[in-house]
């Protein structure tokens, strides 16, 4: 059986980490495989070695003198003894051992395998892209991770995953999604400062855009990023953090080292390649003239561009459009939106901007038939005239 090193970083979150340790220990009791859990302790007030629970699983702690935030995973990865690192947050854990089979199936040029991450209410985790992982549920090849330098310490946290994935893609690696790899993220609010998060997200994602985006799209993506962060900040009452992050980004922008990706790598990184592939397939199999965007969210611009490149016209009326197109490239919200539209009888008109999405839902229905996201709604309308209005910016 595939051997893995589970990796996380933590600071002053005893309850969350204890639950994760005990969950991993229970998973491996009936399937021992020399798995280990390597924890980077970000200078907790009380060292976690003082209270670790007894387990049959190897648990090792890398005690740090300062809080390195997400980059503490680099220290844990350096000491890991297995070839694959299963990245978790201190409040997330796999639902089973499907990730071991997913890793065993990985191709030689696969650097990372992304999980299907759900929250306690049954919805999926927001964030990520078809080739951008979410750090609370992904398996990463240790050699690839270390070769590209792991997480950027200057980011602290927020947008460290896109930065890592941009480096992996530029180095010739691929990232995959495997629905057998299932993770539950409790997403507890302790130590989560929304103003701080918005400050770092605005600054760090801006740095990634300036560093990696080809010249043709750089100004557009910069403006789209600022607009999106402002919307999130207003929604989360974190406008002060947004303003600070924007000021920091603008102050450092001229000094950012430009390392633009090739166009092909960039298109994969932002999801545009996947949206084009999905729209092309949809047009070849069931041609359409008009489309309405539904559940607009992360990188809706790429979905819009892919539709327009087919020659179809985007209209605002879901009642009169030939097709409804889920307009987010974040896998979790995309899958939830697709399931929702299927549950109200609109699946036959709906296109997901990722060719894997329908097969993932089909797989889930067969393998996990009681998943809440696929339970049909009672008395759901099934006619075109009853089509739901498009939802704006959900993820």
Summarize the structure.
By secondary structure, the protein is α/β, with parallel strands linked by helices. It has 13 helices and 12 strands. It folds into 3 domains: 4-185, Spore Coat Polysaccharide Biosynthesis Protein SpsA, Chain A (Alpha-Beta Complex); 194-264, no CATH class; 272-386, Rossmann fold.
> How are strands sequenced across the largest beta sheet?
3-2-1-4-7-6-8-5
Q: pLDDT average, as an integer? A: 91
Number of domains: 3
The main pleated sheet reads as: 8 strands, mixed
Fraction in beta strands: 15-25%
CATH superfamily placement of the largest domain: Spore Coat Polysaccharide Biosynthesis Protein SpsA, Chain A
For the record, give the distance between the C-alpha atoms at the N and C termini, rounded to a whole number. 36 Å
CATH architecture tag of the largest domain: Alpha-Beta Complex
CATH topology of the largest domain: Spore Coat Polysaccharide Biosynthesis Protein SpsA, Chain A
Stretches where pLDDT is under 50 for at least 5 consecutive residues are 370-395
Bulk shape? globular
The chain-level structural class is alpha/beta
CATH class type of the largest domain: Alpha Beta
Helix count from the secondary structure assignment: 13
Number of strands: 12
Helix content: 40-55%
Q: Over all CA atoms, what is the radius of gyration?
A: 21 Å
Topology pattern, helix = H, strand = E: EHEEHEEHEEHHEHHHHHEHEEHEH
Secondary structure layout plus pairing:
Blueprint: E1 4-10, H1 14-29, E2 36-41, E3 58-63, H2 72-79, E4 84-88, E5 92-94, H3 98-104, E6 110-118, E7 137-141, H4 142-147, H5 160-170, E8 174-185, H6 194-212, H7 215-235, H8 239-252, H9 263-270, H10 272-285, E9 290-294, H11 300-309, E10 313-314, E11 323-326, H12 331-343, E12 350-351, H13 356-367
Parallel strand pairs: 1-2, 1-4, 2-3, 6-8, 9-10, 9-11, 11-12
Antiparallel strand pairs: 4-7, 5-8, 6-7
């Amino acid at each position: 059986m595939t051997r893995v090193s589970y990796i996380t970083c933590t600071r002053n979150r005893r309850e969350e980490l204890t639950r994760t340790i005990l969950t991993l220990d229970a998973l491996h009791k009936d399937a021992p495989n020399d798995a280990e859990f390597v924890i980077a302790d970000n200078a907790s007030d009380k060292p976690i070695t003082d209270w670790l629970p007894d387990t049959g699983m190897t648990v090792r702690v890398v005690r740090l003198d300062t809080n390195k935030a997400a980059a503490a995973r680099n220290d844990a990865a350096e000491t890991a003894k297995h070839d694959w690192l299963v990245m978790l947050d201190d409040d997330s854990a796999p639902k089973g051992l499907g990730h071991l089979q997913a890793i065993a199936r990985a191709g030689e040029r696969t650097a990372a395998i992304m999980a299907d991450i759900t929250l306690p209410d049954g919805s999926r985790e927001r964030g990520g892209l078809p080739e951008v992982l979410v750090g609370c549920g992904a398996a990463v090849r240790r050699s690839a991770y270390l070769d590209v330098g792991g997480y950027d310490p200057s980011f602290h946290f927020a947008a460290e995953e896109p930065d890592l994935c941009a480096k992996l893609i530029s180095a010739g690696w691929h990232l995959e999604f495997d629905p057998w790899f299932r993770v539950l993220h409790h997403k507890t609010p302790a130590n989560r400062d929304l103003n701080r998060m918005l400050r770092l997200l605005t600054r760090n994602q801006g740095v990634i855009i300036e560093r990696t985006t080809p010249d043709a799209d750089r100004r557009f993506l910069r403006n789209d990023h600022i607009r999106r962060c402002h919307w999130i900040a207003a929604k989360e009452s974190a406008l002060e953090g947004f303003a600070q992050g924007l000021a920091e980004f603008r102050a450092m922008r001229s000094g950012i080292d430009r390392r633009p990706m090739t166009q092909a790598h960039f298109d994969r990184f932002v999801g545009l390649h996947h949206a084009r592939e999905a729209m092309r397939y949809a047009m070849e199999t069931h041609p359409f003239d008009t489309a309405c965007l539904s559940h607009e969210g992360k990188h809706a611009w790429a979905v819009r561009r892919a539709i327009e490149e087919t020659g179809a016209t985007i209209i605002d009326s879901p009642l009169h459009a030939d097709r409804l197109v889920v307009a987010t490239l974040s896998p979790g919200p995309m899958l939830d939106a697709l399931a929702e539209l299927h549950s109200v009888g609109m699946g036959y008109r709906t296109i997901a901007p990722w060719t894997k999405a329908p097969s993932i839902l089909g797989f889930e229905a067969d393998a996990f038939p009681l998943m809440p996201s696929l339970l049909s709604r009672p008395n759901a309308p099934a006619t075109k005239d009853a089509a739901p209005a498009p939802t704006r910016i959900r993820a």
